[in-house]
Design brief:
Strand order of the largest sheet: 1-2-3-4-5
Oligomer: single chain
Shape: elongated
Strand content: over 45%
Structural class: mainly beta
Number of strands: 5
Largest sheet: 5 strands, antiparallel
Number of helices: 0
Length: 97
Amino acid sequence: FNSAEYPRMTFKSTNVKFAGDNPSEIEGQLTMLGVTKPVTLRVDRFTCKDHPLAKRPACGGNVSGSLKRSEFGMKYGLQGMSDEVRLMINFEALKDQ
């Protein structure tokens, strides 16, 4: 992923789709290797409850998605490895007091 030249990948959400009260998809822009492309992440798990240690409301879950690394300009190893990269992200957020 050429982390020496591009040490960061960023994702900025542009839209969240809901199934009832819970988020089901997060659409956004992923920047990797200096190239920005739209990516949709599926919300696999989402829950909110009081955090047992912080003693305040918290939400967390898992999201997943995939991308083709060649679409971001990554050509190294395309003949020997898969072009598709699967993203699996865990997150947790605490409510500000």
